[in-house]
Amino acid sequence: MSNASAVQAPERLGLLRVLGPGHVWALGVGIVLVGEYMGWNFSVGKGGMIAGLVACWVAGLLYTCVAMIDSEVTSTVAAAGGQYAQAKHIVGPLMAFNVGLFLVMAYTMLEAANAITIGFLLDTVAGMLGHTGLNQQPFIIMTILALAYLNYRGVLASLSFNLVITAFAFVAIIVLFLAVQFGASAVPLDFSAVTNEPLPYGWLGIIAALHFGLWYYLGIEGTCQAAEEVRSPARSLPFGTMAGIMTLVIAATLTWYVCSGLIPWEYLGSAGTPLFDAARVTGNSSLMVLLFIGTVFATTASANGCINDASRAWFSMGRDRYLPSWFGAVHPRYRTPYRSIVFLIPIALIFALGAPLDQVVTFSILSGLLGYTFMTFNMVMFRKKWPLDTIKRGYVHPWHPLPAVVLLVLCAATYFAVFLGYGTQLIAMLCFYIIASLWFHFWRYRFVKRGDQFTMPWPRPQGY
Question: How far is it, in rounded angstroms, from Cα 276 to Cα 290?
Fold first, then answer.
């Protein structure tokens, strides 16, 4: 048989490179900005207003280290899966499998928390209009299904949608801050609790507050999941990620300022939608409508980005046979990891419909925290194996290894903070990941084709 008549192997479909820096910013900030609209305020309940502010800034430092480390490594390892792709190239298969699970669980739990928040918000607004007892479950289900369908149809439309609604939600925070500053509120800002009860639970309250302080920024590392779909990874990923963390630090500080000045800390510490509640306290109907829309947009953008990121991590693990290869399929028309998107829908629904919000938030935070701990060792190994002059990097973060050391110390402090309030859940999650690791080591790893998983054209590591 001649070469001309030979049957050609079908071309392996890949993801489309259609995204720019703005989409990367929208993915990272879109996932996280919901943390300004809900969840962060539990840190105030743990330690008071001052503890909530310290947690905001300490978590901001932690995530600045995360953003700097991720910008360097991911602009070099430009592959779907983000930190999972980093781990398989730099550390090893078992670490890569665990990091992939950390990512999927963190984003899927965050998606569930967003859906819960949308249902709660609609129930609150219905109660304000005199319609009490709204059934939240249909809205939770509809939110997850609609956004999964949007992701199924294509990444460009999905993240362009995120760009618009994320920008609106961020502007809403700025408008609320300016409106309160210039007298649009019927209730003046009152920070007497800051001086009267600065630390109602003592210094231990600051440590406890770190747990939910992460919620201001949790998910910014999701920009890495777009590495295989951006047009210029070396430029877009560092720019989008660093611009994203700066946006979030500003939004987080303004959020704490407005909410702490308008809402008593005892109520703020347990509120479901603190920014919307702050707008209600102002008595300004325009601000109430604006922050209602902003809350819906922020939660929608976050859930949308979480579906994107969780499915990319699951898809990458399937493509490398860390999971069944069935999950590594790309849709022939839409060029999306459609099987991974569909598979994760019922998991998100189970937690959104059957678990309380604080438990879902904690599950997401703990999974993310385990991933951040990995980053510290990953960064040190990356610089040691491939020094700066051996491979081309799109971004080189300064002061190495200081960001990795600071990140590790802050992660250790946050583990202790989580243990103080959710020790049982922390131990249960660690047991889950240990069991999953044993399953991978003794069963699944036999199916992995080791030669196929290393895709970067790097030289041999130093010392090997």
Answer: 9
